[in-house]
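Human:
If only I could read backbone structure tokens as easily as an amino acid sequence. I am handing you a single protein, as its sequence and its fold in token form. I hope you can help me see how the letters and the tokens relate. Thank you; the sequence and its tokens follow:
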Amino acid sequence: MTTTDRPAPAPAGPAAESPSTRLRAAMGLLLPALSGAGTRLWYRQNLAEVYPRYLVAMHQVIRASVPLMEDAVRALRAVGDRGAAGDRGAAGRGAGDRLIVDYLERHIPEERDHDDWVLEDLERLGHTVDGVLRVHPYPAVATLAGAQYYYIRHHDPAAIIGYIAQLEGYPPDEALLAAAAERTGLPFAAFRTMRKHAHLDPFHRRDLDLLVDALPPDPHRSALITGSALEAGAALVTLIEQVCARPPIGMPAPAPANAPADARADADARG
């Protein structure tokens, strides 16, 4: 999820014709909306109240990442297996499918347990894991992740490439995070997930761009990946707006940082 309030630099020269650059250029159409939503989130006066909601939304999205990628791998492998058995309706895209599977199988371990990082940040803000897990998802979370389940199961799992491109396309800004911690008085340790992604996402973005550039030419699949990225970006804008507007249903009040564990559990129960 993005903290950007400025566009990523556009490459110049021959690389401007690469498939990954065309994908990033299309994603750039949504940058004004994403940047505006990010500005409204990170510079609001009640950020200390809203930031925990943002972490809850992050957790709701991130916890779906590894299961989605695992589902995509299974679906792509199943298509390949049926095609190899002579099912003409399941021939898949051969080399392209294998490249995507190889990428996802490398990326899954890189993303595993990141949802636990968010839970740890929320614990630093006085929330308990049980309390957070009882919170109802924001509607835009279901829109964001649910679309990928549909594509994986009923159309083409390659759509997840656009989804990942959007979620990891704009790394968090460390200076913005430090300023947010100072302005709100929230512990800087509660920004750990965002700070780690500030370091990790540029490498993940590079790896995904290499995949996109290596895929065999396929206009229909390229359009799907681009459309998936744009749909994910629009859903992220809506999600940030929902986070700013209200707490999610069932969001418990945090216990004081120095409260004993049973008091924190009581606070979640009251929430």
User: Anything to note?
Assistant: The chain has a mean pLDDT of 87. Residues 85 and 91 are 9 Å apart (CA to CA). The domain at 39-270 is CATH 1.20.910.10 (Heme Oxygenase; Chain A).
